Please model this.
Amino acid sequence: MHRRYRLSRSKDFDAVYRHGMSASTRYLTLHWFPRDGDPSGEPRLGLAVPRSVGTAVSRNRIKRQLREAWRARLEQVPEGKDYVLVARPGLSEPAESRGGEWLAAEIGEMLEKVRS
Model:
């Protein structure tokens, strides 16, 4: 995923959190917010992996896995929206044992909620 399709500024994250909607599973929460100025533009993703998820090494591994799983589901992601994917405590163990396909399925489950 190219950097231009990532959220990086604090004000972008705040807008998604404050004005957007969310859907959750046991291990992930997805927040989304439609962009007013660009309704047909590429979706942008921000990742939030708090310290409660694990050590710095495991958090960075989870971020890489989440970006890869998001990239695998990119054709299913509705355009013109900003997304923030938040990892919840306990994600590192199943992500490690079940692999990237499981993580992509978890993201796909939340994307179904976005479309409805």
User: Anything to note?
Assistant: The chain has a mean pLDDT of 90.
